[in-house]
Design brief:
- This protein is an alpha+beta fold.
- It has one domain (4-100).
- The chain has helices spanning 4-11, 91-100; strands spanning 29-30, 36-40, 58-62, 85-90.
- Strands 1-2-3-4 form a four-stranded antiparallel β-sheet.
- Strand 1 (29-30) and strand 2 form a beta hairpin.
- The protein starts with a helix and ends in a 6-residue tail after the last helix.
């Protein structure tokens, strides 16, 4: 089972560029059952707070490997649920979906 602390740490795992406000995106997550998604938060993503420090209340989801009903209220383009961005998704919703898929895989 993945915890909120682990997910918050993942969100900050992208490498920062010295002398700038840029932080590279965190790697995509793969759950133990094979489900994948991008979970991002920084000053350049649809998240809250919109900074590089967190802790984050909402995050940006991108390109889940399958449609997720819990994410649909935040979907930018509902016609392509696996190829779009989901803005301001509550982190608790993301954590519930990740754990439904067995948590973050090794």
């Amino acid at each position: 089972m993945t915890t909120i602390t682990e997910l918050q740490a993942h969100l900050k795992s992208g490498k920062s560029t010295p002398g700038t406000d840029y932080r590279a995106p965190a790697a995509s997550l793969r759950c133990t059952d094979g489900f994948e998604l991008s979970v991002q938060a920084s000053n350049m993503h649809y998240c809250s707070p919109r900074d590089n420090e967190g802790p984050y209340d909402t995050v940006e989801i991108g390109s889940p490997s399958e449609a997720v009903e819990a994410f649909m209220p935040y979907c930018e383009d509902p016609t392509t649920p696996t190829g779009t961005v989901y803005a301001q998704v509550p982190i608790e919703v993301v954590l519930t979906v990740i754990n439904k898929h067995g948590g973050i895989g090794a």
